[in-house]
From TrEMBL:
<feature type="compositionally biased region" description="Low complexity">
    <location>
        <begin position="189"/>
        <end position="256"/>
    </location>
</feature>
<feature type="signal peptide">
    <location>
        <begin position="1"/>
        <end position="26"/>
    </location>
</feature>
<feature type="region of interest" description="Disordered">
    <location>
        <begin position="182"/>
        <end position="268"/>
    </location>
</feature>
<keyword id="KW-0449">Lipoprotein</keyword>
<keyword id="KW-0325">Glycoprotein</keyword>
<dbReference type="InterPro" id="IPR000782">
    <property type="entry name" value="FAS1_domain"/>
</dbReference>
<keyword id="KW-1003">Cell membrane</keyword>
<keyword id="KW-0336">GPI-anchor</keyword>
<dbReference type="Pfam" id="PF02469">
    <property type="entry name" value="Fasciclin"/>
</dbReference>
<keyword id="KW-0732">Signal</keyword>
<comment type="similarity">
    <text>Belongs to the fasciclin-like AGP family.</text>
</comment>
<feature type="domain" description="FAS1">
    <location>
        <begin position="26"/>
        <end position="172"/>
    </location>
</feature>
<dbReference type="GO" id="GO:0005886">
    <property type="term" value="C:plasma membrane"/>
</dbReference>
<comment type="function">
    <text>May be a cell surface adhesion protein.</text>
</comment>
<keyword id="KW-0472">Membrane</keyword>
<dbReference type="InterPro" id="IPR036378">
    <property type="entry name" value="FAS1_dom_sf"/>
</dbReference>
<dbReference type="InterPro" id="IPR033254">
    <property type="entry name" value="Plant_FLA"/>
</dbReference>
Length: 290
């Protein structure tokens, strides 16, 4: 004989099952930490930065809590930077004491909520957990230059495999996390490279090559003030030197006056002789007529 259940009863049963499964997996980090007053300041920071709601929305999570006497390193930062630092303390996986003790590797890289934010640079969104031979377990940022110095103190709460709250000895602050997403340098840093660049290029651009170049100084002609006013131009210099170096025989101008003087002297002598002869002949004729 078949049993007929009303449709409303079936729907109510499904809703009850869904409600029970949701309540079984749900967790509240604020309520967990409120049971221990040593984490009251850490708990209030999770609430003020809205990280508590995001932690509660995750199905599987591990929170590295810091006690009131060690959380003071966060207080000097802005709320936005505080959120970044606190999100580094939220691991996107479940790790309790047993799971950490059974790690096969000496060091393991873990993904944090800061990496899921999309603004983490380099390895700032990852944690490095190291297990030493003496059983000591230490957490630290996986970013270059960061130290691994936040010791695991113990377990605060665990609900396998949804949420685990572990206490660490100090705040984990990745290098450069305070300036993540800020691409503009501070005013002093922004002006320094510009000034340095100007100073580097000034010597090559400021002087005029014609004024400062040793080569152009050597090739430039001598200043006009150093040359006498009546000095001949460079093009006339060879003509001025030609008479001193030219052979004497090649200078017709120098021999011309001397030749003409000799010719005139010879002509005058011949005229004197002819005149004297004529005078003798005329005198002889006159004597004969007497």
């Amino acid at each position: 004989m078949a049993l007929n259940f009303p449709a409303g009863a079936a729907i109510s049963g499904l809703l009850l099952i869904a409600l029970l499964s949701t309540s079984a997996s749900a967790h509240n980090i604020t309520r967990i930490l409120s049971n221990n007053p040593d984490f009251s300041f850490f708990n209030s920071l999770l609430t003020s930065t809205d990280l508590a709601a995001e932690i509660n929305s995750r199905r599987t999570i591990t929170v590295l809590a810091v006690s009131n006497d060690a959380v003071g390193a966060i207080t000097g930062f802005s709320p936005d930077v505080q959120r970044r630092i606190l999100s580094v303390h939220v691991i996107l996986d479940y790790f309790d004491l047993d799971k950490l003790q059974n790690l096969n590797k000496h060091s393991t890289i873990l993904t944090t909520l800061f990496q899921a934010s999309g603004v983490a640079e380099d390895l700032a969104g990852f944690l490095n957990v190291t297990k030493f031979g003496d059983g000591r377990i230490v957490f630290g940022s996986a970013a270059p230059g960061a130290g691994v110095d936040a010791d695991l103190v113990g377990s605060v709460a665990a609900r396998p495999y949804n949420i685990s709250v572990l206490q660490v000895s100090s705040v984990i602050i990745p290098p450069g996390i305070a300036s993540v997403g800020d691409k503009s340098p501070p005013p002093a840093a922004a002006n320094a490279p510009v000034s340095a660049k100007v100073n580097e290029t000034a010597p090559s651009k400021a002087p005029s090559p014609a004024a400062d170049s040793p080569v152009t100084e050597a090739a430039a002609p001598a200043p006009a003030t150093d040359v006498p006013a009546d000095a001949p131009a460079p093009a006339d210099a060879p003509a001025a030197d030609a008479p001193a170096d030219a052979p004497e025989a090649e200078s017709p101008a120098a021999d011309s006056p001397k030749g003409e003087a000799d010719e005139d002297a010879n002509s005058g002598g011949e005229r004197v002789v002819i005149g004297a002869g004529l005078g003798v002949i005329v005198g002889a004729v006159l004597l004969a007529s007497l």
